[in-house]
Design goal:
mainly beta
Length: 129
């Protein structure tokens, strides 16, 4: 883990460097830029590399998972199939949280264009800011 200057981590936030369910190896880590913050009760699962840029605000109760379970083989358990670690990159000057640029409850599973506002569960770009 690498933290820039003036980084704040909210109370009760968990930063987990490996798979939550114990199916993967030690994670790739977390890098957080200057002046960025994670609100209270957050969860950062950095099995895959997570990079958080500078001046990023992540609100309370936001969870980031940089891995996904493999589950295509129906003849074996999901846990036995392992995980895929793709990582997450949050660029500079983003706000993620309730009523924010990435709205609460939004599932993001693809790249979001720069300066976009996304607040539904289908990853559609609603408008530019």
């Amino acid at each position: 883990m690498h933290f820039g200057n003036n980084v704040t981590i909210g109370r009760y936030t968990e930063i987990r460097p490996s798979s939550y369910y114990g199916v993967g190896n030690i994670g790739s880590g977390l890098k957080m830029g200057d002046n960025s913050s994670i609100g209270p009760y957050g969860f950062i699962g950095c099995s895959g590399k997570i990079i958080i840029g500078e001046n990023v605000m992540i609100g309370p109760r936001v969870s980031l998972f940089a891995e996904n379970h493999n589950f295509s083989n129906e003849d074996t358990t999901i846990k036995a199939q392992g995980v895929s670690n793709k990582g997450i990159v949050i660029e500079d000057d983003c706000w993620i949280g309730s009523g924010s640029v990435i709205g609460a409850g939004t599932l993001v599973n693809k790249d979001i264009p720069k300066n976009s506002v996304v607040y539904d569960k289908r990853n559609r770009t609603i408008k530019d800011r």
